[in-house]
Amino acid sequence: MKRMISCGRLTGTIQVHGLRIGGASQSLEIGNQMDLTALRDPSSGQPYIPGSAIKGALRAMLERIEGKSSGRGEPCGCGDRDCKVCVIFGAHKNPQPASAPTRIVVRDAKLTADSAKAFDDAKKEGGAFFEEKAENLVLRDSGVAKDPRWQERGWSAAFALDILLHIYEGDNPQALMRYIRQGLGLIQETGSLGSGGSRGSGQVHFDVQETWLELERITV
Question: Comparing C-alpha atoms, which of 158, 138, 160, 159 is closest to residue 147?
Fold first, then answer.
């Protein structure tokens, strides 16, 4: 087994505008018209971005620029040692890839302190933290909107980003970290986070700092 020799870390913020990360409906009250509610922390009620959503968007963007896929509409599973997608994210459904082990860990992104305060203040004062947006099917022959679906979007909020990159013997740490940062930049400038990106949702801005952890000094 390869020995882990270092760990890089990207921390910072994700500033969102119109983010759509869906959760289960929180209410069955009569008159509740919200079809798609925002994903919330069950203990605080605050919205958060699952690490899986960030990781999935990052992998999909990098696969897009590499022209990588399994050929079945699934993530790349080639497992080649020179495939940076498989090296970082793991080879999809490949039990014994040459690229193993998976290098990336993406934490759930919770609201920053300022945005958490804004959420709590809005909740206490009866104000709005989420945007309530309707999406409609437009009939092509008449131009009439039909069957609106109401959804909650996070608007002008900041979430705390935390990504870990495990480095093993034989890896090129700087090249792998640059690749992750490139993927984040591509999401920011050419893509989106969450659902509904083609309809205007999911605009984000990343502000990150890079550090390298000394494994021998880590303790609890």
Answer: 138
Helix axes 173-190, 51-66, angle to 10 degrees: 100
For residue 50, is the peptide bond before it cis, meaning its omega torsion is within 30 degrees of 0? Answer: no
Residue 181 belongs to what H/E stretch? helix 173-190
Tokens of 185: 């930049």
Q: What distance in Å separates the CA atoms of residue 167 and residue 100, rounded to the nearest whole number?
A: 11
- pTM flag (> 0.90): no
Q: Which residues contact 76 (CB under 8 A, 6 or more apart)?
A: 63, 66, 68, 69, 70, 83, 85, 86, 91, 92
- So what's the pLDDT on residue 28? 39
* 55-107 pLDDT, tens digit each: 999 999 999 999 987 667 899 999 999 999 999 999 999 999 999 999 999 99
Sort strands 203-213 and 4-19 into parallel, antiparallel or unpaired.
antiparallel
Determine which helix (DSSP H) or strand (DSSP E) holds 121, and give its type and residue range: helix 113-125
Is the pLDDT confidence value at 147 over 60? Answer: yes
